[in-house]
């Protein structure tokens, strides 16, 4: 339907105002250290008998159900679950209507032993060839013990596909963890970007290490069975217990939480990439070699060259140890990975780098330290519009508690910081801008605390924005914009 001249003029004026407003948003010059003092709940794990860890009813009923993206483009899901009593069926029945399952996929089963703990039977099933923007229902298990869930596939990979991500890190299984998870589930986000340290089972001893992996799997099922969690491993995913006779580091995580690493031609499940809606997401391992010519370094170099910002404007990196953090906890542990990869982040115009590890929240301005040279005197980060925003979200709620000691004075690169529990959301609107929020969990209440409008590093540059603005405004006036 065509627009009359007055309506066209008003719409054009509105769009121009929006572009001017978004173009005028710049990084601030004075960082904020929040004065909020967390009235902390005890950082102890929820008791085993709590309903948060309830075992589903029925003999050998599937439990610890969770899904992740199963391919590079978002048209596949990888469904995982555990049967405790016997192997059970590897099949997943699925379809587009509730209680009507037209399709069946066959998975595989594995298990493992760690010390004297024997895991249940861990099932993984890949479902491929799904349609975009479609709700699917699926059933696992058999007979009276079968269970039913659902998930929604993302929109087709294209530059203006809107999408909402949640970001959670260092979750654990305390009452604070439960608060974070429940508040996240109210956010209407569609996929979790998880930045490492899942269960904290390694803080236990002997058989309780495996037991606390099981409780955590049942704990997060309320969300992870219905939407993909994109997994990033942390230091607590390395099980190392010489006193138990386990003298070689072991990763229970890899048995339970597979990743689609082969889809992005990765050499390890610890680092990989996916495309989802309008975002290209790269997952890195902070505890694998990343210096020159090591497998992760080689893979990342090739993957960054494959990124197509015309199709996926938003380039997001996940890792566990933060590159920029002004907290005394784990201070500068990310320095070696910064030295290896920061220049690439600038060159390829990475928009956001999310990390965890430090049990507090912090957001940076756009700063870089690529010109570091102690001989010439370039020893400090400087403002750099081509740099990504670095955000630490290690505040999920684990039993180690909060990291409440920030370095004083607050460094210039630090925009906002607070020692509190919470989660973040990133709501992508189109190729040019997104809305970011960090939500504090204040004594059981969801409190939005830090937020800003994020301009895309690729399409937000002046030349590309002018080209896009001219084309987009013409399409709106002609009545062809969607």
The main sheet orders its strands as 1-25-21-24-20-19-18-17
Judged by helices, strands and strand pairing, the structural class is: alpha+beta
CA-CA gap between termini: 12 Å
The CATH topology of the domain at 32-58 and 162-467 comes to Purple Acid Phosphatase, chain A, domain 2
**Proportion of β residues?**
25-35%
Largest sheet: 8 strands, mixed
The CATH superfamily label of the domain at 32-58 and 162-467 reads Metallo-dependent phosphatases
Query: What is the number of helices?
Result: 7
Percent in helix: 10-25%
- Radius of gyration equals 23 Å
Q: What average pLDDT do the residues reach?
A: 89
Known CATH architecture of the domain at 32-58 and 162-467: 4-Layer Sandwich
Uncertain regions spanning at least 5 consecutive residues: 12-26, 470-482
Give the beta-strand count. Answer: 28
Cα shape:
globular
Just give the CATH class of the domain at 32-58 and 162-467. Alpha Beta
Tags for this model:
single chain; Purple Acid Phosphatase, chain A, domain 2; eight-stranded mixed beta sheet; alpha+beta; 482 residues; six-stranded mixed beta sheet; 19% helix
What does this structure look like?
By secondary structure, the chain is α+β, with helices and mostly antiparallel strands. It has a domain at 32-58 and 162-467: Metallo-dependent phosphatases (Purple Acid Phosphatase, chain A, domain 2, 4-Layer Sandwich). The protein is built from seven helices and 28 strands. The protein has helices at residues 5-24, 175-184, 208-224, 252-256, 295-306, 335-347, 462-477, and strands spanning 32-33, 63-69, 77-83, 91-95, 103-106, 108-110, 113-114, 117-118, 121-127, 135-140, 147-152, 163-168, 191-194, 229-231, 239-241, 246-250, 272-276, 279-283, 314-318, 352-355, 361-364, 367-368, 382-383, 389-393, 414-418, 422-428, 433-442, 445-455. The strands form seven sheets. An eight-stranded mixed sheet has the order 1-25-21-24-20-19-18-17, with no helix packed on it. Strand 10 (135-140) and strand 11 (147-152) form a beta hairpin. Helix 1 (5-24) runs antiparallel to helix 7 (462-477). The longest helix has 20 residues, at 5-24.
